Amino acid sequence: MPIPLVQSNSGPSAQPANPFAAQRAKVEKNLGNVKKAIAVHCGKGGVGKSTFAVNLAVALSKGGKKVGLLDADVDCPSCHALMGMRGRALLDDEQRIVPLSAHNVKFLSAGNMVDDANSANIMRGPIMFKLISDMLSNAAWGGLDYLVIDLPPGTGDNPLTIMQLVPLHGIIIVTQPQEICLTDAKKSANMAKRMGVKVLGVVENMSGSVFSAGGGERVAGLFEVPFLGSIPLQSNIRKFSDKGIPAVLEDGKLLERFRSIIKSALA
Amino acid sequence: MPIPLVQSNSGPSAQPANPFAAQRAKVEKNLGNVKKAIAVHCGKGGVGKSTFAVNLAVALSKGGKKVGLLDADVDCPSCHALMGMRGRALLDDEQRIVPLSAHNVKFLSAGNMVDDANSANIMRGPIMFKLISDMLSNAAWGGLDYLVIDLPPGTGDNPLTIMQLVPLHGIIIVTQPQEICLTDAKKSANMAKRMGVKVLGVVENMSGSVFSAGGGERVAGLFEVPFLGSIPLQSNIRKFSDKGIPAVLEDGKLLERFRSIIKSALA
Fold first, then answer.
1. Which residues from chain B sit within 8 angstroms of residue A195, using beta carbons?
2. Which of A36, A51, B35, B233 has an alpha carbon 20 to 30 Å from A172's alpha carbon atom?
3. What is the per-residue pLDDT for A15?
4. Do A110 and A70 touch, CB atoms closer than 8 A?
5. What are phi and psi for residue A20, nearest 5 degrees?
6. Which of B160, B211, B235 sits opposite A122 (nearest CB)?
7. Rounded to whole angstroms, how far apart are CA atoms B240 and A113?
8. What DSSP state is assigned to residue B230?
């Protein structure tokens, strides 16, 4: 007898009703001056989503856009470290969270809300929902051309919260080329489809290495979404990231790759 | 004014009371014939936790032990694929889940409970808790020397559920060498400390590559736990994994590394 524990969420069923309509209305109001919110996702962790999101935000900013960056990986944040910004987020007189700023990008990360960067934020789903909801509906984001949202891996609470609360322009799926990772990239595309969120395209990260190459393009083809380009596995990205410097600031070729990805995804 | 949204969970405070004592009692009863349960964790995704857990389980089995493997990454499972076992888990006459078997290892993964491996298991925390709880308290694991549990990344719902429900012998932390990953390895160690779970040691995966080397040993030193060894980034591990073959079955040198890790962690 098959186990009825997990329901498959693919298939032709209709998009589910949003149980968080009230919270979504608050978020929509607070992000009223944000032109396009874009989430970066993959079902699998460690594919370089955060590094991609940080460099995407900085590349957009260098192109003259007003940009915000929200780190939605609230239990294990990393955007604050990748941005080189380990300061503390503060509240303004109206008790609203004031985003920090670095490299001409406004940003918020739970990493800027704890004293010790190595302490574990041990939180169950409802607390994470509350925290993300506050960073969206109660933060002074102001006017932005783009709000880039870095999602944690998986298809659980936090990606679901962002897809339910934020009027997304779309998501960008980041994947590594190897087979085991492509399955999770497909899950990401299927989750977006199920939630009625547009997939802007697929980026292949750490391409042409021990991890193989070409898988990102195959996933894009399978879901009939644009393949946005590939980013090679190169040690200078890791080195700059470890120093808290977005690599596009130091590597002109990499910046060109991001400009091309931006053009394909957002033109 | 500092934001009081996230409480740091490090520090000298006492271990919190377990709010799931009743569920834990059921799990303890059902795992009564399991000698040692060992969880594999890192705050960061994509470090190779699942590949490590699968090869650890197979290496233990090749050493003559009775071994089980539980994939606790229920929204984006991968152990079933890495074990090359895409069949369906069934219930016995008493409505208990019967673990599958491959390479002489009993195992359960949410990947064996859905029809389409690419569909997204979109689940919030309470549903994931229920599913993991069932796989622990209502599955016919029988007598085992070792139950290896593959945890998803982060310090949220699922790692917390395992630490609260299972009488763990300890956890093994898998990390990559680069700085941004070490922060999350430290979070994993701090979470274990906070939950009163022993850290059996740290393994450095994808060592000596573009990701650098030596970081795993530093984290082990910092927390005064054993450094268990390193596993190099090599393409044959990726190739075998993509085919659903645990690499220790084909690569004698890798099996030796796992035997050495097992000796250090479990002797």
1. 122
2. B233
3. 57
4. no
5. -120, 40
6. B160
7. 42
8. E
- The answer for residues whose C-beta is within 8 angstroms of residue A126's C-beta and 6 or more apart is B125
Q: Are B148 and B121 in contact (CB under 8 A)?
A: no
Phi and psi for B236 in degrees, rounded to 5?
A: -70, -30
Looking at the DSSP assignment, which residues form a beta bridge with residue A209? A212
Q: What is the pTM of this model?
A: 0.91
As a whole number of angstroms, the distance between CA B15 and CA B10 comes to 11
Q: Which domains does chain B have, with CATH numbers?
A: 19-266 (3.40.50.300)
Across chain B, where does the E strand assignment appear?
34-41, 67-71, 90-91, 97-98, 100-102, 105-108, 144-150, 170-175, 199-207, 227-232
Interface test with A, best of B1, B5, B129 (most A CBs within 10 A): B5
Using CB atoms within 10 Å of the CB of residue B145, give its burial: 0 to 12 exposed, 13 to 18 middle, 19+ buried: middle
Residue to mutate among A71, A76, A158, A195, with most B CBs inside 10 A, is A76
Half-sphere exposure of B127 (CA within 13 A, CB side): 14
Going by C-alpha positions, the residue among B168, B166, B174, B163 that lies closest to residue B201 is: B174
- CA distance to partner chain A, nearest, from residue B213 (Å): 12
Q: Which residues pair with A174 in a beta bridge?
A: A203
* Residues belonging to chain A: 267
How many contacts does A have with B, using Cβ atoms within 8 A? 236
pLDDT tens readout for residues B28-52? 999 999 999 999 999 999 999 999 9
Asked if residues A177 and A233 have their Cβ atoms less than 8 Å apart, the reply is no
Q: Contact, B78 vs B47, CB < 8 A?
A: no
Handedness of CA B230, B233, B234, B238 (dihedral sign): positive
CA gap B163, B18 in Å, rounded: 10
Model confidence pLDDT, tens digit, residues A170-228: 999 999 999 889 999 999 999 999 999 999 999 999 998 888 899 999 999 999 999 99
